[in-house]
Amino acid sequence: MDLGNLLIFAIIIITAITSYIGFNNRQFFDRYKFSTYAILELKQYDRMLTAAFLHADLMHLLFNMLTLYFFAPTLVFQIGPVKFLILYLAAIIGGNTVSLWMYRRDSIYTAIGASGGVCGVLFASIAMSPNSLIGFFFIPMPGWVFGILYLAYSVYGMKKSLGNIGHAAHLGGAVVGLLLAILFIPQILLVHGYFIALMSMPIIALGYFVYKEK
């Protein structure tokens, strides 16, 4: 197994272990989840990263890790393991930064999940191969269509406040993923500029919703 695949499996295994601990240890869960009060008032900035290694339940964990598993290998092949790790962690922090800004006046807001990092990987991967087919509930569709549907779910989740999940983090993660994909391989903007523009539309719409709400 090469370094790239080892890195992907390491992220998945570590996330699964820490999420499982969180399922069974409320004190651990509460200490490392995303919390606007803890970050802004108690200065516990580590939560901007550690929240990505906790999940609400098994289905939440499986959804994020399966998405990472399917999209990460292509991205690692394109940009290498070091840049992949930078992108994943940056997307997590970028996603939680959006959450922090959006809910900065809500001192009781909390969230968990690798949504920001996974969304960054998802959108970076699709930006590099927008026409690659993805099986969505056994229905094949182009990657760029899947990306738009993914963010549409984020909009719905934010509006309905579905669960204790970081829906707002999807926006920041997607933006970071797209920007770093372009930074790492600038030529994709010329080759896949049309598809990148299409995927950017729901990001802009979601950004408008965030601004309008807060």
Structure notes:
With 214 residues, the chain is mainly alpha-helical. It has one domain (3-213): Rhomboid-like fold. The protein has eleven helices and four strands; from the N terminus they run H-H-E-H-H-H-H-E-H-E-E-H-H-H-H. The strands form two sheets. Strands 1-2 form a two-stranded antiparallel ribbon. The longest helix is centred in the N-terminal third of the chain and has 22 residues, at 3-24.
Brief overview:
With 214 residues, the chain is mostly helical.
Low-confidence parts, pLDDT < 50 over ≥5 residues?
A: none
Biggest sheet layout: 2 strands, antiparallel
CATH superfamily: Rhomboid-like
Mean pLDDT: 87
- Give me the CATH architecture, please: Up-down Bundle
The structural domain count equals 1
Extended strand count: 4
**Which structural class do you get from the secondary structure elements?**
mainly alpha
